[in-house]
Amino acid sequence: MNINLTLIVQMLVFIALIWFTMKFVWPMVLGPMDERSRKIALGLAAGEKGQQELAQARERADVIVHEARERAEQIIEQAQRRADDLVEQAKGSATAEGQRLLAAAQQQIALDTARAREGLRREVAQIAVRAASKVLEREIDPSAHADLIGRLATQL
After folding, report:
1. Can you tell me the distance from the alpha carbon of 77 to that of 17, in angstroms, rounded to the nearest whole number?
2. Distance CA 95, CA 105 (A)
3. Rg from Cα positions in the chain
4. Could you please report the per-residue DSSP string of 86-105?
5. Which residues contact 149 (CB under 8 A, 6 or more apart)?
6. CA distance linking residue 7 with residue 142, whole number of Å
């Protein structure tokens, strides 16, 4: 056989093999590769979208945490003001109660002092009557001389 003929036949067989591969085998190989490439692209896009959503969620979380801290500070400030108000009210009511108790005590002292003075006046009047009766050596009737005793009590 002739070498040229063998080369031509081998070339024709090779061309037929390339055509058959390009027509039937290559699409079966490229289809899954294209599908895999598409899935990888979708996965990368979903990953980027997830990262963007994560960044947005972190920003929203930071905003929410900031607002919560501000709200907590406001609540603490309100509680402090309320506590200060309650302390001031307690001080005021304690001062008023103290003044009321002081006034009541002063009034009681004045009443007790007046009673003691009145009692002392009576005792002094009785002592004076006894002394006068001993000096005069006669007995003075306290009921008969009540006017005299009353004047003595008012003078003392």
Report:
1. 86
2. 15
3. 60
4. HHHHHHHHHHHHHHHHHHHH
5. 125, 126, 129, 142
6. 173
Look up tokens 């501000």; give the residue: 70
Looking at residue 8, its amino acid is I
pLDDT digits (tens, 9 = 90+) for 124-156: 778 777 777 765 654 556 565 666 666 666 766
d(CA 129, CA 140): 7
Q: Dump pLDDT digits (tens) for 26-71.
A: 888 888 899 999 999 999 999 999 999 999 999 999 999 999 999 9
| Residue showing tokens 């598409």 | 38
Other beta carbons less than 10 A from residue 149's beta carbon: 19
Supply the DSSP symbol for 65: H
Give Cα 136 distance to the centre of its chain. Answer: 86
